[in-house]
Amino acid sequence: MIENSTDMRVIRSRTLMENALLYILEKEGIKGLTVKNLCEIAGINRGTFYLHYKDIFHLIEETAFIQGLLSVFEPINLQELMQHPDHQGAYPPITKAFQYLHKHASFFKALFHSGAPAELRERLQYLVGTRLYENLKPDQTYNESLFSDYVIAYLGNAQFGIIQHWFKTDRAIPPEDIAKILTLYIRKTPCLDHKV
Length: 196
Hints:
Radius of gyration: 19 Å
Number of strands: 0
Number of helices: 11
Structural class: mainly alpha
Strand content: under 5%
Order of helices and strands: HHHHHHHHHHH
């Protein structure tokens, strides 16, 4: 019984923090997001916050929105993408990811805002880059770790830039069209040409 009540307290604390996070992003934007502000709105103390999360970025990464995005943004099988029969259309997993971003736009727009802290931007770029390219393997010409790091940085920045611009223009084109653009860019990426 004690373990169950502890679990309920953990769930309650995390729910309060996630709700406060959403409230701040909606009302104040990313600039209003501090541990102090979040704790005040959630009605918890800083110790409770740090019991659950290392920092504000860790909280963001653990939200249902980010976890949902990571489950939708499945690692791309590049060979499958390159050989996908519809060469004019979007690769379906990319379309699915943009549809998810569109559905939860109020949350993601704040995260991909140009005024977001550099650390958040870097972490999102890394998450997107590593998630999409987990299956990427170099040929024998490259040092594997160097190749992976640079390609993930290059592709993560490219994806982040496209997503950021899409939100900056208030999602002026439908998710399916932005997915087509990204699919085309990946197909034409020089460092991937000989990998599949």
